[in-house]
Amino acid sequence: MALEHAILVSLLEKPGSGYELARRFERSIGYFWTATHQQIYRVLKRMENDGWIDVRDVAQQGRPDKKEYSVAGPGRDALAAWLHAPIEPESVRHDLAVKIRGAAFDDPAALIREVERHRQAHTDRLAHYLSGEVRDFTGPQARAAADPLGPPDPERELQHVVLRGGIAYERMMIAWLDDVLATLARFGAPGR
């Protein structure tokens, strides 16, 4: 996937400035596709030059005008073409898994702290996903926004299924890391 596609999806969900887009990447889409502010601004400029996005200046009180980006017709066409094109399943590149295998040739127990650090990161991310799910999909605010008598909202439902995939992934990683820790513990405490 090119960064352009992630930006198009985000702008179709809600037009915004480059800064707002970068913040969205940090809060949601960035868990699946990361980009720096500089990369986002560089790609926005290229997309503007290619006619994929429209830009309008928005006056701000007491601050310089900001540019607000939205998807133009050619951008929708490019996204549609990408959505309909097949992609190859992603292969996993996992540095920690290689370290774990390599630990057999050193001190396996010395890796415990590193695995615990990874487990904590996945636990924190899972907690973040779960709180987002409550806030956006099951909490009082989400129930008030949902119309149980209205037609299904594909944008909302597809956002939720992606979030559920992230939740399932984090749970799987935590279970695997627990297995790794139990295996490493059989070799003693670090430094022994």
At a glance:
It comes from Streptomyces gulbargensis. The protein is mostly helical.
Description:
It contains eight helices and two strands. The chain is mainly α and 192 residues long. The protein has a two-stranded antiparallel ribbon. α2 (18-27) crosses α3 and α6 (112-138) runs antiparallel to α8. The radius of gyration is 21 Å and the shape is elongated. The protein starts with a helix and ends in a 7-residue tail after the last helix. The mean pLDDT is 88.
Uncertain segments: none
The CA-CA distance between the termini, in Å, is 45 Å
Mean pLDDT: 88
The best one-word shape is elongated
Structural class from helices and strands? Answer: mainly alpha
Secondary-structure element order, N to C: HHHEEHHHHH
Radius of gyration: 21 Å
Strand order of the largest sheet: 1-2
Total helices: the number is 8
What percent of residues are in strands? 5-15%
Largest sheet: 2 strands, antiparallel
User: Can you give the helix content as a percent range?
Assistant: 55-70%
Annotation, overall tally of beta strands:
2
